Every structure is written in C-alpha cells, then in structure tokens.
Structures
1.
Amino acid sequence: MRILGVCGSLRKDAFNLQLLRNAAGLLDDNAAFELADWSNIPLYNQDDDNDNLPVSVQAFKRAIEAADGVLIATPEYNYSVPGGLKNAIDWASRPAYQSVFAGKPVAILSASMSPTGGCRAQAHLRNIMAGMLTPVFPAPDFCLASAQQAFDEHGQLKHDQSRRKLQRFVNDFCDWIKAH
Ligand SMILES: Cc1cc2nc3c(=O)[nH]c(=O)nc-3n(C[C@H](O)[C@H](O)[C@H](O)COP(=O)(O)O)c2cc1C
C-alpha cells in the first residue's frame, strides 16, 4: 500500500512534518510512505490548467494518483487551511469531479501551537474535500495541541498517549483504505 504524505506547512522544522514522520514510522511493513513536494507550485491560474500544466503540478498530481491513500497533516492559519496548501489542492482538483482527488481516500491530521490543535483547519479541509468528491477517513479528529511541547529533540512524539492514538489512527486508516 502506498501512502502519500502532504504537509500543509513549508517550514523546515514544521510540527506537522514531524507529525507526518511519526505517522509514517507507525505504518506497518506492507505500506510505503512518500512525502509530496508542493513547494514549487505556482499560484493557481486557470489559463495554465491545460496542456501546459506546470511541471511541479504534474508531479504533485502524479503522486496523488499513484497513492492508495493520502495523509495530510496541516497547521491552521487564521482559523483555516494554509493558503499554500489550498492552492496546491486547487491545482490537483481539476478536472472537476474527475480529478486525482475524486474517490481518493484521504485522512487529515493537524498540529498547532494553540490548545485547539488546528481543529478549525481540519473542518475547512473536510469541506474542501467534499467539493472534490474525496472520501475523508471517518474518525475522531486527530488535533495535536501545544505542538511546541509534543516532540523530543529527535522529532519523536514524547507522550505515550499521543503515540498510541496516532498508531490507532494510522492502523484504522490503512484498514479503511483496504475496505474502500
Ligand atoms: C500566518 C499564521 C497564522 C496562524 N493562525 C493560527 C490559527 O488560526 N490557529 C492556530 O492554532 N495557530 C495558528 N498559527 C500558529 C501555528 O499553530 C504555528 O505557527 C504552528 O507551528 C504552525 O505549524 P507548523 O509548525 O507545522 O508550521 C498561525 C501561524 C501563522 C504563521
């Protein structure tokens, strides 16, 4: 099974990247993990959404297409999804209802420095997914609050409870993909 990780933050030491890496480390041996690179995707312009699709967008779309499931870990920016992530998703969302996201199993994680853990961004992202006919893993929200205190110096989740919760999330996501 191929899982594509998408981090909503471009920050080098992003907590969401650390969360994704922890999730990847908890996948079983039958699963391969790859991290998507959307850092060079330009601003969406429908004029370019044709045979001259930017190379970075082509690569992002191919990676989604090749994956059995997409695991997104995102921060919350101003109560919503970071603009850069939304922009990348918009590119991948065409052609409408027939895009690489249509029918693609997706799971959402979030990490934030606030006590709310990015839950508002998650809610908005679920709504965006609905617009692309993308099934979202039905599970209680995994929102990592106070992320600045959650990882050790090696980027590992410090607390057993968070690790166990993430393990269960990852296992159940993979089972859900198989059943899909
Ligand atoms: C532009 C901007 C807006 C932010 N807005 C929110 C917000 O609405 N809610 C929240 O919980 N944290 C907010 N934060 C703080 C983020 O939780 C924090 O920067 C976090 O580390 C970002 O995730 P990352 O470490 O994966 O980059 C915001 C940060 C930035 C830079």
2.
Amino acid sequence: MKIFISADMEGATGVVQGVQTHHAEKEYVFGCKMQLHDVNAVIEGALDAGTDEILVNDAHARMTNLNIEEMSFDSRVRLLTGSPKPLSMVQGFESSDVAFFVGYHAKAGTPRAVLDHTISGGVVYSIFLNGKEMGETGLNAAVCAQKDIPVGLVTGDLAVCAEAKELMGDALVTACVKTAHTRMSADCLLPEESAKVLKTAAAEAVERTRARKSPCVDIGDGRFELLLTFHNSGQCDQAATIPGTERIDGRTVRVTGSDMVTMRRWTVALISLGGR
Ligand SMILES: [Zn+2]
C-alpha cells in the first residue's frame, strides 16, 4: 500500500496561535517541531501496519517546515518539500492508494476551531464548490476522489474532525489532538499522548483502506462550479484578470470545469494572484 500524507501545521499538537505557524516569528520553531511530531507519529503507525511506501507532502505556507533530518528514518518514506507546487497541498497524490491529511484545520468561519481558515487566511473569505462551502479538507478530498483515491485519516482539532466526518461519513478515521475554546486557544493532549492517538489512528486507517472501507468524498457528476470570495475587491480585481474567470460581484469570481484537479489548480492560481 502506498500512502500520500498532506501535512499542514495549524492542526498539530499544541499549536494554537498564528505566530507559531509563521516563519518570521520566533515561535515558529515550536510549530515546525509539533508538525513533525504529528507526522512522525502517523508514519510510525502506518509503517507498523505494513505500509509499503509513504510520500509526505509538506503542505503549510512555504512548504519547507518539516525538517528532513528529523523525520523517522525508514527507506519506505520520502518527503516532498518546497513551493510553489501546481496542486499545492495535494501535489504528488496521484498513484497513491489512500491519502492522509495530518495537522489539518477547519474551514474559515468555523466557531471553536483552532486557526480556522481556507487556504489563505488574509485572502480567502470563502470557497463554494457546487453550492457547498468547502475548506481545505473538502477541496483536497475532492481532488483525491477525482482519481478514486479515498481519504483514510484526518488529524487536527475537534472541529476539523467533525468537518471531515460530515463530508465523508463515519468510515473515515479521525484523530483529535486538541479542542478549541476560541480561535487561538485550545485544550491540548500532551505530545506523548497525542503520539499514541495518532499512531493508533494511522494503523486503523491502513486496516480500513486494506478492507476497502476508507471513503471518497462525493464529487457528483463531474461538472464543477467554484465560487471564490475574497476579503476585498482589490484582491478580486487581481484574480479576475485571468481569462476564463467570471466576476460575479465585487469580491467573488466564478470558474467552471470538468475535473477537480483543474479546479484545485484554479484555487492555487486565483489565490496567488489575488494575494499579491
Ligand atoms: Zn497551514
């Protein structure tokens, strides 16, 4: 079995504040350490359960957060690091048997959710796919579903676990490492305990995938309409310069397509241009 791990940081053990996730802040060292902690725990659980190959895609911000020297060494594991990447958080997912989303967070606007946002907190107000508001979990799961690759595991705070189960049902394994009290505070498991929880969940996700029980998110009939609403009209002005976009109001552009890989590339392009 080949596993693709998309590793974000906001949902990692003990991480609760933006400064812990931003490279220019001194607290960033802690964020990196905890992202690595959670990724290593998931890798160990998956390898113990008999995984043949794991590709970890560093999926947070500049995507150079995971220290390759500190990753649990095993010849079956590789790291995809750096940016930009056309498919961003799901770059390299193709040809996997299952995807794991580690250190994830809830979509923008979720109450009692650690550092809730959708792809880029300062740029995106909301993203709707075929009429349903989607966060990173939903969008990335939809890309995987395009190639019939299920999601086996989602880890992060209680809010992202609930969001993921709402999208994919109870067959999905989730691992909760913290429960938010507010956007920047949470009741957290200690690292030793969260490592056990993550390891066990990863092993269970491997078993469920083997039994063909890991879920794909429903992507309907293969026609997609994506509405991206920016925080302000200036950001939308930038994004709407791309031919093929349709400006539907001051802050929103609309794009359509027939496959999720292209739709996800649209989000990458619109957000990078809008965020300039
Ligand atoms: Zn992130």
